């Protein structure tokens, strides 16, 4: 299937991720059938979409009136209505293998012969997800990052039975709707982004646990060094720039001292056992009682929006 054959999007799930994927397609001209099993979730999803549209409008990021974009999104709780004519389906429902497999098998009963089926799983194995399907070759992972209306990356991950054409079409489509799609050669636990995020987190928590630095110090060190650099030049190109002889040398004495636990993280587990879950419980490594957490999220999203605007202005010079 070519990009020009993609005319209608089916979107499964209207929650944190699903509302944002529906909006992303609608903002780029696609009609979207937004399906959820729960009509209250659909209502909430539409309200969130309206809120995001207003934010994008204020930032000058919309090529059309918000109402025109919203009209392209058709909420429904009926599977047949949602997917019978869809050319590309993106699913963001509960992160559970059995739930996802059941829903995809039901969807496959009503779709056309060429429809591409994409799941926004955070890390379930695409080979396991596609194994119950009659046409696993048209099934792929399209892993967006939260908040999906603001973060550019989509990891496109094939299962063992996925066709190359399915990966290619998904990459083209994601780029066409303004995302930055990166295909992986094959699936791995955590794909790539979460493998690296967790490797960094394991070491950051080890540093705190060893009394080397406070959580605040670790976060500042990343924000003012690697965080800035990696948004411009990734870790592998950075090693090239620094000299591979230098990095070889550092690895020779440093790797042996780095965290290498293989089980559940002991520092995180202790926090969870103490009821300290972070922002949602008011305490984690920081104190989140009061408005500080919401303010941090709002500031982060405002800064992400500014970066999106800068990307948009570079791509659309006046
Ligand atoms: P959510 O809980 O906000 O939304 C899930 C939605 O799916 C709800 O509206 C629910 O009513 C609906 N739903 C559940 N089961 C359903 C079914 N059987 N049929 C139809 N609708 C159903 O969840 P969220 O955070 O949007 O996550 C969805 C998926 O996206 C998960 O696989 C998650 O791992 C993945 N993801 C989540 C990220 C995050 O940071 N929240 C980041 C990247 C991926």
UniProtKB/TrEMBL annotation:
Pathway(s) per entry: Lipid metabolism; butanoate metabolism
The organism's place on the tree of life at top rank: Bacteria
Residue stretches making up the 3-hydroxyacyl-CoA dehydrogenase C-terminal domain: 190-288
Location in the cell: Cytoplasm
GO CC field: cytoplasm
Protein's GO biological process: fatty acid metabolic process
Listed EC numbers: 1.1.1.45
Keyword match Nucleotide-binding: no
Keywords on record: Cytoplasm, NAD, Oxidoreductase, Phosphoprotein
GO molecular function, one term: NAD+ binding
Subunit structure: Homodimer.
PANTHER family tied to this protein: 3-HYDROXYACYL-COA DEHYDROGENASE FAMILY PROTEIN, LAMBDA-CRYSTALLIN HOMOLOG
Protein name: L-gulonate 3-dehydrogenase
Organism of this sequence: Levilactobacillus namurensis DSM 19117
């Amino acid at each position: 299937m070519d990009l020009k054959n993609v005319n209608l999007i089916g979107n499964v799930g209207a929650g944190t991720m699903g509302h944002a994927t529906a909006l992303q397609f609608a903002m780029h001209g696609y009609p979207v059938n937004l399906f959820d099993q729960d009509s209250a979730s659909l209502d909430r999803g539409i309200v969130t979409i309206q809120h995001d549209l207003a934010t994008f409008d204020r930032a000058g990021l919309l090529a059309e009136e918000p109402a025109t974009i919203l009209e392209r999104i058709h909420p429904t709780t009926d599977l047949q209505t949602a997917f019978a004519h869809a050319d590309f389906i993106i699913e963001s429902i509960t992160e559970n293998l059995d739930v996802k497999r059941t829903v995809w098998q039901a969807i496959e009963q009503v779709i056309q012969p060429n429809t591409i089926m994409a799941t926004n799983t955070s890390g379930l194995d695409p080979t396991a997800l596609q194994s119950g399907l009659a046409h696993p070759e048209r099934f792929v992972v399209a892993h967006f990052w939260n908040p999906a209306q603001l973060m550019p990356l989509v990891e496109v991950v094939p299962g063992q039975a996925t066709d190359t054409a399915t990966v290619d079409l998904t990459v083209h489509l994601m780029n066409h709707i303004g995302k930055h799609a990166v295909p992986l050669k094959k699936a791995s636990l955590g794909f790539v982004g979460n493998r690296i995020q967790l490797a960094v987190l394991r070491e950051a928590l080890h540093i705190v646990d060893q009394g080397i630095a406070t959580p605040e110090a670790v976060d500042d060190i990343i924000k003012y060094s690697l965080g800035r650099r990696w948004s411009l030049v990734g870790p592998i190109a950075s090693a090239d720039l620094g000299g591979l002889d230098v990095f070889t040398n550092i690895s020779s004495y440093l790797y042996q001292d780095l965290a290498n636990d293989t089980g559940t993280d002991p520092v995180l587990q202790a926090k969870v056992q103490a009821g300290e879950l972070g922002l949602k419980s008011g305490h984690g490594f920081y104190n989140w009682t009061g408005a500080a957490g919401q303010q941090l999220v709002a500031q982060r999203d405002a800064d992400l929006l500014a970066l999106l605007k800068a990307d948009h202005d570079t791509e659309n010079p006046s």
